[in-house]
Amino acid sequence: MSFFGKLKDRMFKSSSKLEEGIEAIVEEGSEVQRTPPPMPIPSPEPLPEIAVEPAPEPEVDSTESGGLLGRLFGRAEDQSAPRRVFDDAMLESLEEVLIQSDMGVETSLRVAENLAEGRFGKKVSTREIKGALAAEVARIMEPVAKPLPIYAKRPQVVLVVGVNGSGKTTTIGKLASQFRAAGKSVVIAAGDTFRAAAVEQLQVWGERAGVPVMTAPEGSDPASLAYDAMAMAEKDGADLLMIDTAGRLQNRQDLMEELAKIVRVIRKRDPEAPHNTLLVLDATTGQNALGQVETFQKLADVSGLVMTKLDGTAKGGVLVALADRFGLPIHAIGVGEQIDDLSPFDPEEFAAALVGVSQ
Ligand SMILES: Nc1nc2c(ncn2[C@@H]2O[C@H](COP(=O)(O)OP(=O)(O)OP(=O)(O)O)[C@@H](O)[C@H]2O)c(=O)[nH]1
After folding, report:
1. Contact by Cβ (8 Å): 351, 138
2. What number does the ligand 1 atom closest to the CA of 198 have?
């Protein structure tokens, strides 16, 4: 199955919510429209003879793209499909549906406003609105869709941060496996030395990915492990060193000091390290993800995001809010617990899956 197929299948909770919401809005309004239209007033004078093209149906921006959205939403529409006039009530209902999909209030209001532009007072169908929404979401997401940059630097150090349970370990395993498949040599450092279970889990992922995992005794200094891992990665000529970290936000000061110390010691070996600081976020936490970005930006120099657990959540819209608010690159998304359930972030695929493409 293509990754888009998987994404579409698994993001059903978000998309069905948006899809059903938009359908309901259009259908509700279209009933109002069934009252007979007023009789046309005959024009007293013959119209001057100028070549007038029949007014075209309002175009869906996305249909102009030859890409995925164009293919999905661009075909001619069944004329019997319900339509309603885009009015204030529709604008408000759209805002509500977008907020419910976790796009955040600010972003939802702006997106709804953009959908209204050029359509206000005109009759629109569900598919037109879905197509336009998908195009708008893709437009917002386009600038942040950037794979993890790979540098010539060896080892490239990737520090992985995020709250406990966000999916750091799983993401490190998945990324390591992908880098291995691309012919890169990888070393993992199990930097959450305070939790034996976290270390064990990382070892399991290391085995799956065929990548060595450096560990240290429970409770030992994560910075010292990071330093040793850096030395080992240098000695082995590894392309990448991925460092897992603790995610205990309960004591923010300790965590900040711990992360700062890791950075300080690895810089003794390479003043430019870490080359990437990946923040792993759990999509099921919805709007909390926004707060986590703010917090971790204070704790570390976050360079990009990975959003996990997009499968089975109705909160996929939070990615749009994140992109709109922070503009941080989204390197990858996770849609499952298996090793190949991590994909580069594709804005059009995401937009289509979020909005729902069954129509
Ligand atoms: N459905 C789904 N589950 C995921 C995904 N990514 C991670 N998980 C699951 O989320 C749980 C937590 O993931 P971990 O990788 O252990 O998270 P962590 O941030 O390392 O957490 P700690 O080890 O507690 O610090 C595990 O049960 C994973 O299998 C995903 O994309 N989709």
Report:
1. yes
2. 23
Total domains, the chain: 2
Same domain for 166 and 122: no
**What's the domain range around 284?**
156-355
In which order are the strands placed within the sheet that holds 156-161?
A: 213-214, 186-189, 240-244, 156-161, 276-282, 304-308, 330-334, 342-344
CA angle, residues 18, 167, 344, in degrees to nearest 5: 65
Q: How far is the CA of 209 from the centre of ligand 1 (A)?
A: 16
Q: Is residue 106 a contact partner of residue 72, using CB atoms and an 8 Å limit?
A: no
pTM of the model: 0.86
As a residue count, the chain comes to 359
Q: How many angstroms separate the alpha carbon of residue 13 from the centre of ligand 1?
A: 19
Backbone angles phi, psi at 236, to 5 degrees: -80, -5
Query: CATH number for the domain including 348?
Result: 3.40.50.300
Q: Residue 255 pLDDT > 80, yes or no? A: yes
Residue 278 phi, psi (nearest 5): -90, 125
- Closest-lying ligand 1 atom to the alpha carbon of residue 312: 1
**Pair 70, 63: CB distance under 8 Å:** yes
Enter the ipTM: 0.94
Asked if residue 6 lies in contact with residue 335, where contact means CB atoms within 8 angstroms, the answer is yes
Could you report the per-residue pLDDT of 124-175, keeping only the tens digit for each? 999 999 999 999 999 999 999 999 999 988 999 999 999 999 999 999 999 9
Both 179 and 310 in one domain: the answer is: yes
Residue type, 37: P
- pLDDT, mean of residues 271-295: 94
Q: What is the CATH number of the domain that holds 101?
A: 1.20.120
Ligand 1 atom with the smallest distance to the CA of 280 is 19
User: Ligand 1 centre and the CA of 100: distance in Å?
Assistant: 25
